[in-house]
Queue: 2 jobs
Job 1
Amino acid sequence: MAGKNKQIWFLIFLIFLLFLINYNFLDGLLENFFDESRYVVVERIIDGDTIVVENNTHVRLLGINTPEKGEFYYSGAKEFLEELIFNKTVKLEYGREKYDKYDRTLAYVFLENKNINLKLVEKGFANFYFPSGKDKYYDYFKKAWEDCINNNVNLCEKSENKCAWCIELKEFNYKKEIIILENSCEFGCELTNWEIKDEGRKKFVFPEFELKKRGIVSIKTGEGENDEDILFWKNETYVWTKTGDTLFLRDDMGKLVLWEGY
């Protein structure tokens, strides 16, 4: 009887061992089956957030937005990306939507398990950007931006303009598309060519304008005549997305004055 029990326990052990081996094997198969990511060679860098891979596939990097041509740090972002991934094999991991309205592939780019999109934010060559809503990587990108602010580099570099300490965001009503800025100092602040930007491409550039001491100014989306109390963000039906967005205020040298997200 004792020998028979040993055989039964040995048989159970073998079955359990086979189950573990097959479970890991099957688990790997299932993971690979549902994983739509693929490996490609980077053939060209268009700019800091767009690349071209095999078969002339244009890829827009998810989670970030880098400066446009002619803007501060455009060249730096492009060159940084070239140094990291040009002519290298990378992994593309897709998000909720696989293509944008320009038919570009949307993806996170990984090189040796490192999220390259995230690196661009960490080094101050991109701000975080989630127009379709926050995904599983959002918190990492927001943290990367906050770290970049603390490191005071590139797009995160704090303005040294004396008025950067004076201009405060008094109200940010993204539902009504209204921004109110206040000058808390006892002198006027020249805001000509300062700019307000969302996470994406929408940008308001201040016309010739001085915000008087202890004064306030409202910036509204829509059409209207500018005066000393109100400026209009023209040619835009809306700016701030319902799924979440961030306001960035920069001086005329492209340095960061303040930012506020929701």
Job 2
Amino acid sequence: MSPPIAVTDSNTISGSVQPVTVKTRYTKAPDTSGWLRVRLEPSGESAFLCEFVKVAVSKEGERTQFVIMEGQHKRKTASLSKENAAKCLVDAKRGGGASIVAKIKGREWLVSQPRRGERLNQLVATLSFDGKSATITLDSGVRYTESNPMSPNVGTVQQSKPLPRGTYKILTPEVPKTPNMTAFYATAPGGYPDLKYHTVWFPVEYAPTHNSNFVHVGNLSEGCVTMYELKMWNPLYAYLIANRSDKEGKYVGTITID
């Protein structure tokens, strides 16, 4: 169990302080989405946190208040109902950094049943992670409209291309992707009904594309590290999300493309 941290905070007496017990906890999703929705205080706005984000619980009652210690909402105060806090703010341990390796095999024309029999020229690779291996695609040879607002090419049609060979840092996810981008991989004929966490995409840190490449599930890659073998996404997600490779919680680990 994580020990309480003794800190000081203001009380109702001007000029004095009193000890407050703060407990370190980690976020856990209440379902298989991989996301925890919290209420930011005092604005009341909603925010989403992925799993294994470090928080500091400072006040417990009908609503449990805590400070988010990492990510885009770092240092902000948030709250959950007492019931949800008991389930979704947990004592846990994170790994010190995931390491995954993609070994390129070459181009293959593959038919995707969940994508209504679409046939694409896939750059196939074998991904090794946590003692497991799976088939992925690094590029599907398609044209797409750039949607990343940070890219100078936003709004223009681009030709997909894979990440160059090398080692890259994998960032911690910060926002859910739109469900309709991947939900059909669970519901469509030829899909994987037990697919979970499909809106959690892990950005790959790569300056030339402004971090537009992701590790995610699917049969279509616009230059992403895409888990083509749908049944292997759940274990890959579980491995990546439970790791952080730096003290700030910015990265979950690395991928090497060879």
